Amino acid sequence: MQVVETKQIVKNYKNHRHSMLALNDISLSVEKGEFLIITGPSGSGKTTLLSIIAGLLEQDSGEVLNREANNMGILFPFHPLEKHLTVVENLTLPLIAKGYGRLKQLRRVKQLANIFDLNTNLRYFPTEISEGEARLYQILRAMMPFPKLLILDEPFSGVDHRKAVRVMTYLREEAIVNNLTVIVVAHDVRLHPFAHRVIRLVDGKISSSSGDIQLDQEMPHYFRI
Ligand code: ADP
Ligand code: MG
């Protein structure tokens, strides 16, 4: 089943001075349980595409279907942790919005924090932790409400490679075991083998695509750490 489908998406940013064609005819289907990496130079339209898929931005023309719009976890660089809340308060916010009780909220924080080995500074404020740590907590925040579709826009900037591998390993497992669909912008080619498919955007177009969701449904041995 296709979770996300875009057909001939076009997006132009216009203001009084100039117009910028950010997406030029993007057609893309993402299967349930697929792990998709999007790469490409800065300014190629990655954030614009993910924003449109997430429903945060409207395309000029073309169609977007997102079957998990109500079960999404998202991370965008323009949506940092809330500075006036502690890390744990930031993490529980998405669950409060969903009506989870306090015990369930804290159990979920503990579960994810344990998986990523991030237990030391849950009571800190975002200004008291490093940029890389803040990024990891942004990933956790996106995963808190048990999403079925996870959209992560450059989640690993400032995150060390070992931690990034840990996150990718977990997400790949979730894709296989629980059919989580993952779309992540990641540039480091060492992370690309975790994905079923890697697509590259250049100048608002898909310039290349490699891999296939059908290739495997089991964890290849080199993902085990
Ligand atoms: P990427 O995420 O690949 O770096 P973006 O989707 O952020 O690319 O941007 C694609 C192009 O659209 C860039 O040239 C960028 O300058 C332009 N752009 C993005 N957002 C805006 C905006 N709000 N107003 C005008 N131009 C924009
Ligand atoms: Mg971007």
* Percentage of residues in strands: 25-35%
Estimate the helix proportion, in percent.
25-40%
Compute the average pLDDT.
92
Which structural class do you get from the secondary structure elements? Answer: alpha/beta
End-to-end CA span: 30 Å
The stretches of 5 or more residues where confidence is low (pLDDT under 50) are 221-225
Largest sheet: 6 strands, mixed
Structure explained in plain terms:
- The protein is of the alpha/beta class.
- The protein is built from 5 helices and 9 strands.
- A 6-stranded mixed sheet has the order 5-6-7-3-8-9, with helices on both faces. A 3-stranded antiparallel sheet has the order 2-1-4.
- The two termini are 30 Å apart.
- It binds adenosine-5'-diphosphate and magnesium ion.
Any descriptors?
alpha/beta; six-stranded mixed beta sheet; disordered C terminus; binds adenosine-5'-diphosphate; three-stranded antiparallel beta sheet; 29% helix; 28% strand; 225 residues; binds magnesium ion; globular
Detail the topology: elements first, then pairings.
Layout (H helix, E strand, L loop, with lengths): L1 E13 L4 E13 L3 E5 L6 H9 L6 E6 L5 E4 L11 H11 L4 H14 L15 H13 L5 E5 L7 H18 L2 E5 L11 E6 L2 E7 L14
Parallel strand pairs: 3-7, 3-8, 5-6, 6-7
Antiparallel strand pairs: 1-2, 1-4, 8-9
Helix pairs in contact: 2-3, 2-4
